């Protein structure tokens, strides 16, 4: 069945807001009653470098930059409500970005209102307002190149006639709607919004106009949204700051105390592993003049979502959520790969996990590997660990005798990832790893013997030397490895 095409008449929308409009805030706004949610502006140059990653643990689709930063995270729940806003001054790049995200979003929007220098100096944002030919080129390219509706967000121009004329040109490109922030480029958010300009434009075009700019003095609660709609003569309204301060402004049941809104926001941030700095930023916006209160100071001092959860008494929720995510991670991993070596490039991999309970206290595979390497007069095992951004899980690669080993399964901590890599190396080389019940394992016995003052490692050493040599000479195929690619 074809997906429902998003329409923009008679909607109330969460406005695009840098840093604020990430997934937790968008879901929160939808919960309270927003019809449409815009993401924060994302710059085309950064987005074109991203790859699309399905994050099965979180149940999200992530657009991940080459440095592994998640630039845009979305999920099924918002798929037919989320508008992807981009900053662009280049029709081809704009199209490439729109095509990258179009299957995961309900519409794409171009920001033509940002007056900040970082935007305008690249010809983006409000700089586009003085280049209508460029506006047309970008919008036409998008409209003809993607299957979802295309919109744009502008500010008003110095004269009403200029704004009307620009929006009429924009309408002809085939866009589905235009959001108008009723302030001039030079005006700041504290200046009154020009409802009369928005009204005049709305009367001259037939596409929906989305009125924006009323948060400061006009829209304080749900009832005011309708007033703002009437004052601007539009069918749709977009809220930025009023929603940022308290997203329950979208609720027809009236506003909720900001304390409970912050709590709900934080739950989404935990559930979707939102970056802690972003979580902090949004909570500080909601705290407003209470940002220097004891709670505000605790939030500001926090470095992780766990610490922020402490500040709000949500430790238990945080813990439970982490356990659920870990369980999902393990379930996904266990079904995927058999317990035999597979070559991934020049690395020998196996699907193994480090289970602490399988080893006696004070015994770890890493210790065994180190001890064995010393005995073999090899260089100390070298561990290199990476963390992936989508779920912060770790994977470690250990180099022993110039060969690399790693577990294909990701672990929740760096320590566990290193232990898993050590297990792979020990198993591939056929060396005991110290597991409980590992009958008469050479090293376990040797430890005992050493403790008992006996040494007799000659036969054992000979065996170990043979194992390394075999792995080196025969190559991985003869050790039961298969190539992954
Ligand atoms: C924190 C913040 C970030 C913003 N980021 C964006 C953005 O990414 N894209 C955009 O078009 N406008 C952005 N804006 C402008 C808002 O979308 C909106 O036009 C403006 O705040 C006026 O609406 P309001 O009176 O409802 O706040 C931002 C505003 C704020 C307060």
Automatic annotation (TrEMBL):
Pfam families: dsrm, Dus
Recorded superkingdom: Eukaryota
Single GO cellular component term: cytoplasm
Record-annotated DRBM domain positions: 364-431
Annotated InterPro entries: Aldolase_TIM, dsRBD_dom, DUS-like_FMN-bd, DUS2_DSRM, tRNA-DUS-like, tRNA_hU_synthase_CS
Region of interest (Disordered), residue spans: 448-485
Required cofactor names: FMN
Keywords tagged on the record: Flavoprotein, FMN, Oxidoreductase, RNA-binding, tRNA processing
Ranges annotated as biased composition (Polar residues): 473-485
GO molecular function: flavin adenine dinucleotide binding; tRNA binding; tRNA dihydrouridine synthase activity
Protein name: DRBM domain-containing protein
Organism: Channa striata
């Amino acid at each position: 069945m074809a997906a429902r095409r998003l329409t923009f008449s008679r909607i109330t929308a969460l406005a695009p807001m840098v840093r604020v409009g990430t997934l937790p805030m968008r879901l929160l706004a939808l919960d309270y009653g927003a019809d449409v949610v815009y993401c924060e502006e994302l710059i085309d140059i950064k987005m074109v470098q991203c790859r699309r990653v399905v994050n099965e643990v979180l149940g999200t689709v992530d657009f991940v930059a080459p440095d592994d930063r998640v630039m845009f995270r979305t999920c099924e729940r918002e798929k037919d409500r989320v508008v992807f806003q981009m900053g662009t001054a280049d029709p081809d790049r704009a199209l490439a970005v729109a095509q990258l995200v179009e299957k995961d979003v309900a519409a794409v929007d171009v920001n033509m209102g940002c007056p900040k220098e970082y935007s305008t100096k690249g010809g983006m944002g409000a700089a586009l307002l003085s280049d209508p030919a460029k506006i047309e080129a970008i919008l036409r390219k998008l409209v003809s190149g993607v299957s979802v509706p295309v919109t744009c967000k502008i500010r008003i121009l110095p004269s009403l006639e200029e704004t009307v004329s620009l929006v009429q040109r924009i309408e002809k490109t085939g866009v589905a709607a235009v959001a108008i922030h009723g302030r001039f480029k030079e005006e700041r958010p504290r200046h009154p919004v020009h409802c009369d300009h928005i009204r005049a434009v709305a009367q001259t075009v037939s596409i929906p106009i989305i009125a924006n700019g009323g948060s400061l003095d006009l829209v304080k609660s749900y009832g005011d949204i309708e007033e703002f709609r009437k004052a601007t003569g539009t069918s749709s309204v977009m809220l930025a700051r009023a929603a940022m301060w308290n997203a329950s402004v979208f609720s027809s049941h009236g506003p909720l105390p900001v304390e409970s809104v912050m709590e709900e926001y934080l739950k989404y941030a935990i559930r979707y592993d939102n970056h802690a700095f972003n979580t902090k930023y949004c909570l500080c916006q909601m705290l407003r003049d209470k940002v220097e209160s004891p709670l505000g100071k605790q939030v500001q001092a926090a470095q992780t979502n766990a610490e922020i959860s402490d500040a709000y008494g949500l430790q238990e929720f945080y813990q439970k959520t982490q356990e659920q995510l870990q369980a999902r991670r393990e379930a996904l991993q266990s079904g995927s790969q058999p317990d035999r070596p597979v070559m991934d490039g020049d690395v020998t991999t196996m699907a193994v996990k480090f289970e602490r309970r399988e080893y006696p206290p004070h015994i770890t595979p890493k210790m065994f590997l180190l001890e064995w390497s010393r005995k073999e007069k090899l260089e100390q095992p070298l561990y290199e660990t990476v963390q992936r951004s989508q779920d912060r899980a770790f994977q470690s690669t250990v180099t022993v005798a110039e060969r690399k080993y790693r577990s294909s399964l990701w672990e929740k901590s760096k320590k566990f990832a290193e232990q898993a890599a050590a297990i792979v190396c020990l198993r591939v080389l056929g060396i005991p790893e110290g597991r409980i019940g590992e009958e008469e394992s050479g090293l376990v016995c040797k430890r005992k013997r050493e403790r008992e003052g006996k040494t007799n490692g000659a036969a054992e050493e000979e065996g170990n030397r043979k194992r390394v040599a075999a792995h080196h000479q025969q190559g991985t195929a003869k050790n039961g490895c298969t190539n992954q690619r």
